[in-house]
Design goal:
about 15% helix; about 140 residues; 8 strands; single chain; Lipocalin; 1 helix; mainly beta
Length: about 140
């Protein structure tokens, strides 16, 4: 009887290790955008994730921001991902701000080891675009 209990504990431990090996990857880290001109730092913000511009080869001002009081701020440090929540199939969904056009889009991030697929869509079923980012630092 003791051997059965021991085997059950070992079986549970092996299952737990196996489960942790396939646990969901999160998007935390610093990521280089597809064209290589900037990096974005994604981190936990409360229960979800958010992301900020960490560096840029040619940083500019947020001149297309719909809020006129924010148009003179540098693009370095601005929050570009908001409220990213875990979803199905190793995805995180929330919103993204695009300083190039001053618009908010629906964002879906899919981390996959050293790369991450970024999908941005116009709200309410509009057009979508994707690109792949590369991890710089975890």
């Amino acid at each position: 009887m003791k051997m059965s209990s021991f085997a059950a504990v070992i079986g549970f431990a092996v299952a737990a290790v196996g489960f942790s090996a396939v646990a969901k990857a999160d998007p935390a880290g610093e990521w280089r955008v597809a064209d290589g001109t900037a990096t974005v730092k994604i981190k936990k913000c409360g229960p979800n994730f958010c992301g900020f511009v960490a560096s840029a080869t040619n940083p500019g001002k947020d001149i297309r921001n719909p809020d006129p009081t924010k148009r003179d701020r540098s693009t370095i440090g601005i929050e570009v991902f908001f409220n990213l929540k875990p979803g199905p199939n190793n995805t995180y969904t929330g919103e993204t701000y695009n300083a190039d056009d001053g618009q908010i889009y629906i964002a879906t991030l899919t981390p996959n080891g050293p790369s991450m697929l970024i999908k941005g869509c116009v709200p309410n079923g509009g057009a979508c675009g994707t690109e792949t980012w590369t991890m710089v630092n975890k």
